[in-house]
Amino acid sequence: MLHDEIVKLLKKDVEFFLKEKNEEDILNFLFETQKFTLHYVASCELPGEIYLVLDNSVIQEIKHRKEKTNRAVKAEAYLTFCKFVKHWSDRITYLTISPMAVYEHLGRKIPTTIIEIHNTLTELNRILSATSLEIRYLNFRNAETLYPLLISISQDEAELTKYVKNIDQSSWKTDLSAPIGVKIPMSVAFNSLPPLPPLEYFHPWYVHFVLSGRVEKYIIEQSRHNPKAMPIGSGELTILFSKLNTFKRQVLQGLGDIDIFQICDVCQQFQNNSESFFIGQTLDRDLHEVLTKRHILHASSEVIIGGAPDQEEKISNLVNFMFSNPFKENEIRARQIHSKFVDFKKNIDDICLKILESL
To answer: Could you tell me the pTM of the whole model?
Structure first.
């Protein structure tokens, strides 16, 4: 389809949706569309295929967008973003459904038959057909291969619920004084967590990482008794971790957030030289911030130890590394997608501005 035809259809769809919306809705639509698009544009610096891993919040917003008007704006923003992926981007990109997203869509219950799981997958494909993007399953092929993963998630959920309740009921009052300076609460938290129960689905390192933020919060709150060793927080990321897991009606919330985090940690994927990248898609503000802060490209060279036999060789390698521009290809990919983003954004901005001026 020609670019002008695509723009014409985009304007028609967006104008139809926004024509009776108020200023707040229009601005929210603009903000959410740009948020998803910018996150995707940053991801296009990475090599290989892109897999957009859906948080259940996005799925539910799309599912209920027609009967619940409070969900319509964010849902339409995501669908508009998908138009950018389909018609502006030239990167191979798939929507991706994880086992955890299916589990949450099922109301965190295990169906009694394989047929029910099959019907759920059919329903999810129907809901997400509105995006017009091709759908992929993550680590399963069909209902039969998904079933044991759902069982594993349910078992992990039960174990982690007991584990986190134990954390919450424990005292984390700690003397943070040290021979020199003050102990860092996050370090204390990371080393003080009880051993995790055996986990079948969730990655222990990510669970430990996130729950360390929860314990750091308790240590900071409970360890202010020594004025000479007042607690020092480790930063915004661990504060966000402390918000990811809460209890609602005695049920542990936020395991879906840990799932998205362990799948879509761009920093770790880049370090592992991944050939394709998994990018989290969420409407949850705290989870979005976590994913953004872990969307870091980091290249490193060898550590040089003075007096080592190969010291001169390593110094030479380091100098070459410093001048090699290790992110050159990433910068080329960034420039390629940037002009397309500017064009898409201008069209969306023009539509919204026109409607705002008519109010």
So the answer is: 0.87
